[in-house]
Design a protein that fits this description.
The protein has about 270 residues and is α/β, with parallel strands linked by helices. About 40% of the residues lie in helices and about 20% in strands. The protein is elongated and about 75 Å long. It starts with a strand and ends with a helix. The structure holds adenosine-5'-diphosphate.
């Protein structure tokens, strides 16, 4: 039996297929989130890599911003629940999740069973999100994936005081025009994002282990800055961008197995 979870975000579609043993068979990410061809591209790639097709999938759960628009899904589940399940599976000791995506930031508190007990979210403004970092990367003429290694070369941190992406972009341009070292400015950008995110996370109460998830967790500059601002170690799984999709796949597997058990007990009763 196989179950599929798909997390359709604002910028990227992530997909995970698990088998009966809860083992990940394949995970794919496609550029383009809600309202784009991204979700179907993620499906095509997963099926191509595994030789599986829709007939092999017992249950599909969609989560994320675009979850309501994915026709093949049997069910939709909120990303809060799915991130909780996915992180608990990968990092059972995590009690706080900070998820930084393309256009939003979430902070979740988990209990010992991996259930979400509190959460906070900023989806109203780009400050502290992947979008903020993408705009800043463009100023350096870099890809966002290169910002982390740039800031690793910093020998001091240039304070970026504006949190609004538009004003912060001008501030960064003027710092670079004043011949500040790009690495030091990049470190300041990461610190500004980390402060913003830490203030959101503090509203759920930060308890270790702290897991950082979402595509932005792949930015080592953010991981370093956030652990400095929080004064605590942060755990990042190599699967950090897939935790929502993984949670959806695990919930889909559980639902499919429950349906199967019901069928079996009905046959016995008959
Ligand atoms: P969403 O669910 O909102 O689409 P994701 O959690 O998939 O968001 O994360 C997307 C964000 O992650 C984008 O802003 C993207 O720039 C950032 N991102 C993806 N890969 C990397 C990387 N290697 N380094 C830094 N940032 C990354």
């Amino acid at each position: 039996m196989h179950a599929l979870g798909i997390d359709i975000g604002s910028t990227t579609s992530k997909l995970v297929i698990v088998d009966t043993e809860r083992k990940v068979i394949v995970s794919t990410a496609a550029a383009g989130g809600a309202g784009t061809s991204g979700p179907l591209k993620a499906v095509d790639e997963a099926f191509r890599k595994t030789d599986l097709g829709w007939n092999d999938i017992a249950m599909t759960i969609a989560t994320g911003y675009g979850r309501l628009a994915f026709a093949p899904a049997n069910k939709q589940v909120s990303e809060i629940t799915c991130h909780g399940v996915g992180v608990h599976h990968l990092l059972p000791l995590a009690r706080t999740i900070i998820d930084i995506g393309g256009q939003d930031v979430k902070a979740l508190a988990l209990n010992n069973d991996g259930n979400v007990t509190r959460f906070q979210m900023n989806d109203k403004c780009a400050a502290g999100t992947g979008r903020f970092l993408e705009v800043m990367a463009r100023v350096f003429e870099l890809d966002v994936s290169e910002l982390g290694s740039l800031s690793a070369r910093a020998d001091s941190i240039i304070e970026i005081s504006n949190t609004c992406v538009v004003f912060a972009e001008s501030e960064v341009i003027s710092r670079l025009a004043a011949s500040e070292k790009p690495a030091n400015v990049a470190a300041g950008i990461h610190q500004a994002v980390a402060r913003r995110v830490a203030s959101l996370a503090s509203r759920v109460g930060i308890v270790s282990d702290i897991a950082l998830t979402g595509g932005v967790a792949k930015n080592s500059g953010i991981v370093t800055a956030l652990s400095q601002v929080l004064g605590q170690m942060i755990v990042v799984s190599p699967q950090c961008q897939f935790t929502g999709a993984l949670g959806a796949a695990l919930l889909a597997l559980k639902a499919a197995q429950a349906t199967d058990n019901n069928k079996d007990s009905k046959v016995v009763a008959d």
